Amino acid sequence: MSVTREKILELGENLIRTRGYNAFSYQDISTELGIKNAAIHYYFPSKENLGTSIVRTNIQRFEEMVDNMHSRHFDEWQQLESFVKIYVRSHREQKKCLVGSLGPDYRTLNETTQVELKRMIERILKWLTDLLEQGKARKVFAFPDDPASKALSIFSSLVASLQLSGIVDKMDYKSFSQSIYDDLKP
Amino acid sequence: MSVTREKILELGENLIRTRGYNAFSYQDISTELGIKNAAIHYYFPSKENLGTSIVRTNIQRFEEMVDNMHSRHFDEWQQLESFVKIYVRSHREQKKCLVGSLGPDYRTLNETTQVELKRMIERILKWLTDLLEQGKARKVFAFPDDPASKALSIFSSLVASLQLSGIVDKMDYKSFSQSIYDDLKP
DNA sequence: GTCTATATTCCGATAGAC
DNA sequence: GTCTATCGGAATATAGAC
What we know:
- The structure is a homodimer of 186-residue chains.
- With 186 residues, chain A is mainly α.
- Chain A has one domain (51-182): Tetracycline Repressor, domain 2, CATH 1.10.357.
- Chain A is built from nine helices and no strands.
- The N and C termini of chain A lie far apart (47 Å).
- Chain A binds a DNA duplex (18 and 18 nucleotides) through residues 2, 4, 25-27, 35-39, 41-43, 45-47.
């Protein structure tokens, strides 16, 4: 895989996560790389291809993280913390997550990108649901609702908190993430 | 206030909430109204003016709702339910809320629109924080964290849930909103 | 295989017609 | 006061040069 291609993917993801899908152009990427905008079309014929590839890269990254946690025998708390830390880092880097960035533009995305984004969200929710269910069964997590609802509520909070934290200044992200943990303590 | 102007505001808000700020054009609105796109510029010289007016309209609508609830002597539960119902309705109408739609595009908005959006979010969070604080003091709500954190967590969940519900089909919004209530019950 | 010159379409906006 | 004809520029994308 060419280095230019990788840089395009990285720059594209950054642009989506800071400015949104419909607000960035091939020009933004090509200028940064010192080439003409049309050169991007060699690697990604259309913006749809680029968007889809970026989502797929993120799904892959998620799968790698999950595999990594399993092979290192992370317990439920360690896994949850690893996941939440993704958002703490995003917050520090002043970026939204891909789901929060692409979500509002869902209807304007091409079908293949829609399918991948949907797949990404369902994959994350399934993983989180399983984690919560397992943790509840092992009594390391405690919560009244069913695991699927709880997973949705935690994921929603994380996604939207990044959006709000980019606007409202006084937001204490540390205590926000802490409240997620506190809420699950037995 | 002219009827055309009001229709533009309504169509603009709908477009933002279904397709996002950077995905809609004056053309989308003018076609719907059967006039030329430039006619919109008479009412709103630039897209910035339109966006700002839409946010201001929403702030005003929120203030009216709050006033209405006070004059009808709504208790804490009734007020919370009225607020949550805004999102239940949005979900039914397959629209995101303004905050969730404009949030990811925040950096691409003009400064006046940014200021208004920020004002809107802070206004909502302040209202919700006060409501939770009052309800906690009167023992009709019960939750461990401080009211500001709880307000942020509830608001985040509502905002993001609309985004996810537009993508993941199997989402049960009724039980989602119910879990917000259950979580606050003493 | 990698990138540039160029076409085409659409956007937001101005100047001016009615 | 209300809307149209039209401009300048930017966006995505194709065809072709190296």
